Amino acid sequence: MYDVFMFSGTLVALVTPFLDDINKSVDYESLEKLIEVQLAANIDGLVICASTGEGTLLTNEERIDIINFVTKNINERIPILVGCSSCSTNDAIRNIKIAQNLGASGVLVTSPYYVKPNQEGIFNHFKNVSNNTNIPIIVYNIPSRVSVNIELDTLRKIFQLKNIVALKDATKNFETLSILHNEMPNISILSGDDGTLPACLAHGACGAISAAANVYPKEISNIINNWNNNEIQKFKGLVNMISYISKVISITTNPIPIKYILSKMGLIKNVVREPLYSIDGEQLDDLLNKINILNKC
């Protein structure tokens, strides 16, 4: 049995920094800096090689090297989750087994993308993934990226599987979250959309897998901790902050804005892999100034 609340609080969906060379190689020196920044902020876990980490744009060899590098640097200080999604069930199982063998604490898995399976196909995907692996699995429901929603009845069935421990939700369907939380109070629900973090917490979430936490780990942690500690006035005071942060990271495709801000902070180079593209950030700069003002209030 797994502790379903082993993943809670602030889990950072870490970017993968690249060098500005012809291959846009993984920048391990900057990756080490990012890890130390997050540890200093006392975050509760890292998610690597997922959407924010441009996981689908990495080679298999790069994924293995990154997992190895991060697990050795973290050295069991906090949990490490690895994005292991695929449009192929067999490939997802292979990715999960690699992550498990390299010391990951758990994995993050979407429903298969591009092939658009029906609900029975989605359930069978997770059933086969569960039956063929022995590591905690977080189900990631994000229709905007995979084109298919995991419906409530399907989620109910999925959460009967042996090593499914949590749901990362980016659907904005708060009624489903409330029903799951009430029917299955031992399920760990995590926000998967920074802009809806306050609403997710109000409907049963115990934390977040956050892209914005690359840049604002303390702010994301504060809003989660304020809610969990019933410090409602402090929580309300951060809602505007989260709204502006969400505008920053959603101005174009994730992780383009996050990488731009991190580059301005001197932590990484402003490099993403094709077909993504870097931006100069004029619109972002205006929003960042508003966030700085809010931070000083």
Q: What are the SSEs and their pairings?
A:
Blueprint: E1 9-13, H1 28-40, E2 45-48, H2 60-74, E3 80-83, H3 89-101, E4 106-110, H4 119-131, E5 137-141, H5 143-146, H6 152-158, E6 164-169, H7 174-183, E7 188-191, H8 197-202, E8 207-210, H9 217-228, H10 232-237, H11 239-249, H12 256-264, H13 282-296
Parallel strand pairs: 1-2, 1-8, 2-3, 3-4, 4-5, 5-6, 6-7, 7-8
Summary tags:
297 residues, single chain, 45% helix, 8 strands, globular, alpha/beta
Outline the structure in words.
It is a single chain. This protein is of the alpha/beta class and 297 residues long. The protein has a single domain (9-228), classed as Aldolase class I (TIM Barrel). The protein contains 13 helices and 8 strands. An 8-stranded parallel β-barrel has the order 1-2-3-4-5-6-7-8. α1 (28-40) crosses α2 (60-74), α3 (89-101) runs parallel beside α4 (119-131) and α4 runs parallel beside α6. The longest helix is centred in the N-terminal third of the chain and has 15 residues, at 60-74.
